[in-house]
């Protein structure tokens, strides 16, 4: 009979769900999103800092293998242990995590974070950069990783500045040299600064006044700093806030300052360090050129094959292959490893670089996290963290019985995906959203950027 059913229709074992009908917690669980953090009353400054630091995978490992005496009950040890427990919880589940224990210890380390607003009766907003500093200072005391000659923070997050002081008023006076460590570099901002690199130059070359032994009085000096050691993880602080005495606030500079996804620090190095890092730097540049050449060839071959199947002649094929991105036709081309690049001979590193665990052997970095601020002064507004999604993280399944009205195919292109951590709300954004964080208006603006040394593997 026409229209008859060949077999019985069974009811689905699970009712079908759509993302639009699910709670945030259900969506986070099904999509296996990273964990968000509950805002415990103006604690976004802490949440955003923690999400950025959690992108440092070696930190989680070091926390779980801490060599500090477990019987030590100092406030720094308590904060370190609570950070270990918090990161372990965050990395094992999706949804929202309550960071109360860590917050209690943080406020013991920095009592200023416990300040209450008299009018509202709730805790005041705090500076995320100050929070960043407080956590790293505590970890430098409370965290000792195995097989490291120094503490974890000094190994993986600290560099060395070599500063030369030259007297401008008496060029015959011999220059003096000093060395100091740093846990982040500053990007100074004025009307001439449009790029992060310009702001770094301003902070590394400054005019100062100090006592001149040859002149017997204070004189003007040029202080030129160069980097003598680069850490694997480099934090850069955009100096966007300045004190407005009339209004008694730290006002914000909203000027647009662009920052790169890949950062080459060669121009800021001492000649000695630059020479030591040259082999790895040249290797990475050569590998990049080979990969790009292979990608271009593969795009041309793919376009030529597609056009052949469509009946287009070879001249049109060649023209199409050279057009803009040759259609990012496929993210698969960009993701496939290059056999040519894998065949490149690995560089021979300087022995002092090999033994310096936690350093950057090339001077070249990739962006992995951005801490942003939206608002007009440092003690108000809102902080958010944006963290690059690693390619091995699972985001390719919606789970059984779940449907979506949007296309998930693009979400598998991990190299261009980032997590947006807005306290307990976590979402996935494209890299194009990160490019919008350079300032210029009332939008989320980069305050701290975190870079990781490019891998030689």
TrEMBL record:
GO terms for molecular function: cysteine-type deubiquitinase activity; proteasome binding. Belongs to the peptidase C19 family. It catalyses: Thiol-dependent hydrolysis of ester, thioester, amide, peptide and isopeptide bonds formed by the C-terminal Gly of ubiquitin (a 76-residue protein attached to proteins as an intracellular targeting signal). Residues 313-347 are annotated as: Disordered. This is Ubiquitin carboxyl-terminal hydrolase. Its EC number is 3.4.19.12. The lineage of its organism: Eukaryota, Fungi, Fungi incertae sedis, Zoopagomycota, Kickxellomycotina. It comes from Smittium mucronatum. It comes from the Eukaryota. Residues 35-454 form the USP domain. Keywords: Hydrolase, Protease, Thiol protease, Ubl conjugation pathway. Residues 316-332 have a biased composition (Low complexity). InterPro entries: Papain-like_cys_pep_sf (IPR038765), Peptidase_C19_UCH (IPR001394), UBP14-like (IPR044635), USP (IPR028889), USP_CS (IPR018200). GO terms for biological process: proteasome-mediated ubiquitin-dependent protein catabolic process; protein deubiquitination; regulation of proteasomal protein catabolic process.
């Amino acid at each position: 009979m026409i229209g008859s059913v060949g077999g019985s229709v069974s009811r689905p074992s699970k009712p079908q769900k759509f993302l639009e009908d699910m709670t945030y917690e259900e969506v986070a669980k099904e999509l296996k999103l990273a964990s968000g953090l509950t805002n415990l009353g103006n604690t976004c400054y802490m949440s955003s800092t923690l999400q950025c630091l959690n992108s440092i995978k070696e930190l989680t490992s070091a926390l779980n293998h801490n060599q500090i005496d477990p019987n030590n009950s100092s406030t720094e040890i308590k904060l370190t242990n609570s950070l270990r427990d918090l990161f372990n919880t965050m990395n094992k589940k999706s949804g929202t995590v309550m960071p109360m224990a860590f917050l209690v210890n943080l406020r013991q380390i920095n009592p200023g974070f416990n300040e209450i607003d008299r009018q509202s009766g709730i805790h005041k907003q705090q500076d995320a950069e100050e929070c960043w500093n407080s956590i790293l200072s505590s970890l430098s005391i409370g965290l000792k990783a195995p097989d490291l000659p120094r503490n974890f923070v000094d190994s993986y997050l600290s560099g060395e500045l070599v500063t030369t002081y030259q007297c401008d008023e008496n060029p015959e006076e011999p220059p003096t040299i000093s060395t100091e460590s740093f846990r982040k570099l500053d990007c100074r901002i004025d009307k001439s600064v449009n790029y992060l690199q310009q702001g770094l130059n301003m902070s590394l070359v400054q005019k100062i006044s100090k006592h001149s032994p040859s002149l017997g009085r204070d004189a003007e000096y040029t202080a030129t700093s160069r980097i003598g050691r680069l850490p694997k993880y480099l934090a850069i602080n955009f100096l966007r806030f300045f004190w407005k005495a009339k209004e008694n606030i730290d006002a914000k500079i909203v000027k647009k300052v662009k920052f790169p996804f890949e950062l080459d620090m060669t121009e800021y190095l001492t000649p000695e360090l630059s020479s030591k890092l040259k082999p790895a730097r040249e290797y990475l540049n050569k590998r990049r050129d080979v990969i790009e050449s292979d990608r271009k060839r593969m795009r041309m071959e793919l376009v030529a094959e597609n056009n052949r199947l469509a009946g287009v002649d070879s001249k049109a094929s060649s023209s199409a292959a050279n057009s803009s991105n040759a259609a990012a036709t496929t993210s698969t081309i960009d993701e496939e490893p290059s056999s040519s690049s894998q065949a490149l001979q690995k560089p021979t590193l300087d022995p002092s670089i090999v033994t310096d665990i936690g350093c950057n052997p090339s001077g070249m970095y990739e962006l992995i996290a951005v801490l942003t601020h939206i608002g007009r002064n440092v003690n108000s507004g809102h902080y958010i963290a944006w963290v690059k999604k690693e390619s091995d993280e699972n985001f390719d399944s919606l789970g059984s019985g779940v449907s979506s009205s949007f296309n998930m195919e693009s979400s598998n292109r991990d190299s261009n995906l980032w997590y947006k951590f807005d306290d307990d709300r976590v979402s996935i954004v494209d890299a194009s959203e990160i490019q919008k964080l350079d300032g210029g208006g009332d939008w989320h603006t980069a305050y701290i950027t975190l870079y990781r040394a490019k891998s030689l593997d």
